[in-house]
Amino acid sequence: MISHLYSRFCLTMPAPEGSTGLLVAFSGGLDSTLLLVLAAQYAREHGLPLSALHVHHGLSPHADEWVAHCEAVCQQLAVELLVERVTLIRGNGESLEAQARTARYQRLTARMREGEWLLTAHHQDDQLETLLLALKRGAGLRGLAGILPSQPFAGGLLLRPLLDMSRAELADAAASLPFGWVEDESNQEVSYDRNFLRQTLIPQLKARWPAMAQTAARSMALCAEQEALLEELAESDWQLAGEGEALHIGPLHALSPTRRNNLLRYWIRRQGGEMPSREQLARLWQEVALARGDANPRLNWGRQSCRRFQERLYLVSPDLQPCHQVLPMIVGEPLTLPEGVGELVVRMAEHGEDRLRIPRPDEPLSVRFQVAPGIPLKPVGRSGSRRMKKLLQEYGVPSWQRGRIPILYYGEQVAAVVGLFICDGFMAQGAGLVCHWQGGGAAPILPEQDLV
Questions:
Q1: Residue 154 in contact with residue 108, Cβ under 8 Å?
Q2: 340: left (phi over 0), alpha (psi -120 to 50) or beta
Q3: CA 287 to chain centroid
Q4: Minimal CA–CA distance to 338: which of 307, 302, 368?
Q5: What tens digit of pLDDT does each residue of 373-398 get?
Q6: What single-letter DSSP state applies at residue 452?
Q7: Is residue 120 helix, strand or coil?
Q8: Dist CA 439 CA 449 (whole Å)
Q9: What's the rounded Cα separation, in Å, for the pair 351 and 355?
């Protein structure tokens, strides 16, 4: 039985030449134990380094015993075992299931080496559970596509080589192993949604329709294909409407509502945003994109806010606040800016455009974010002075970024507004200073740049 599963395991794996090693997520349970056995044989045959990672969540009174069991199994298989201990917080509004999953993948990410393959023991019955949970949430095609057999992950690949195998097949094969596995007592707790499906609902479905897991897997594969097609369409539309992290509203008017929503979801997803509901997506279009021209609309959901500026949509943090700090600046030393604004470095430069003159001894450098009301500024090359508010409008700075752009002061004089302009009288004729600002996500129209 093991040899048959190993043949199927090998068929799911990419060409081994593309891997720098294997890392198995090893809980010590039946599924991951069998996965480790198969991975150990594969690693030996292909000369790949192999290690296993066990996460100690501390939720079970048997957690230390599980670590000892995993150590014994890995010793018999001559596999290096890595143990990570995490602390979960009860009552913080997030389920322990979700916390444990997040912590587990954080530790796996931290341990991954460039080009390594992470193997997890998800199987066909897990796919059925995932489909039913997605239906409960009202998920779209992306959610109904379920667990992917392969995807990029932490500089390497995340592979699930058991995904086409049923839990019953794995149990039959595991029974022939010379060592056992741990049984997590929390798997019997039906207050967890996945356990309820596994212990109560799915056995009834399989009793009525024995091939339920296989047919569900086929449906999920079709959903994955259709989702990939929608992704291609969105990428094509993005070429016409996207600009950096912004989305032009104009081209969206020519799209059907369905195609427009597909592009809006793609735009949010490529920035790592939390996906809105259908109702929220409709409000985004009606209340933000189609708001009157002189409005400053926004729509908040989750941990982000959709804003509009100059007929473009932006996705930003919903609680951006102006900065009021005065921070001393030392040439050559990175300065971490407050409120997630990023990092700023001022350094010497012999050549190039837009260099600040070297400050005099009586002109200490500092970084601020405000200009006193009524103080006019004159950018180099401009015929006259303007107040800061007017200049920011002319340079196309959205309202939510104002008060969050670093301003370099020489003493009490504004020398430069970083990323926008140098003030008259502060341009260098020879060697001088340049500012390198790596933004912290609060300035989508001011990307990482080497200018002041």
A1: yes
A2: left
A3: 27
A4: 368
A5: 889 999 998 888 999 999 998 888 88
A6: -
A7: coil
A8: 9
A9: 8
